[in-house]
Amino acid sequence: MQNKDHWEKVYSTKPTNAVSWFQPHADLSFDIIKASGVAPDAAIIDVGGGASVLVDDLLDHGYSNLTVLDLSAAALAAAQKRLGSRASRVQWIEADITKANLPARQFDVWHDRAVFHFLTNPEDRAAYVRVVFNSVKPGGHVIVATFAEDGPAQCSGLPVMRYSADELHAQFGESFALLNHQKETHHTPSGTEQQFVYCYCRRINS
User: Fold this and answer.
1) For residues 5 and 135, what is the distance between their CA atoms, to the nearest angstrom?
2) Whole-number Å distance between alpha carbons of 69 and 79
3) What is the pLDDT of residues 51-88, one digit of tens each?
4) 183-205 burial, b for 16+ CB within 10 Å, e for fewer?
5) Domain count, the chain
């Protein structure tokens, strides 16, 4: 997977609202989670959540069983500082998701905005999908967003993969039923536009 030192440097040297992937609010991610119909106490994991404000939005709307996983300790620390006392209501995991040992059938919702597209090695992508399959409950919800076909070829100086909705779903295979997909134009803090694709899947009961 991507180099941990790279991401520690990014989050140690740049304000969290200056990185290209910053969102004031994770509106589309939140809307998809809300539309899934899961209960407020559903187990939700934000993979690569780092300093993302999705956890804030979820807490604000009464979701209470939240986990944020990121490769970067500095990113997690930034989120914890921002949340203040509310940080104690969230489980924080510092890990490489391709090697993470997560509890089996633990999560009702898996969310990832912009981690999967950094996995340029097929073995890393396969490892990621295995972690998703093992840790999401049968019937659970999987939301993954990456750069779209017309998105950037690099991010933060690193190469990325770009996908159509069908190509992204194909990475996960028959164990995940594609329920919906959506494009999003992300406006970076510097004023450029980046095209994302969001795929919303259901883990097959098995």
Assistant:
1) 27
2) 11
3) 899 999 999 999 999 999 999 999 999 999 999 999 99
4) ebebeeeeeeebebbbbbbbbee
5) 1
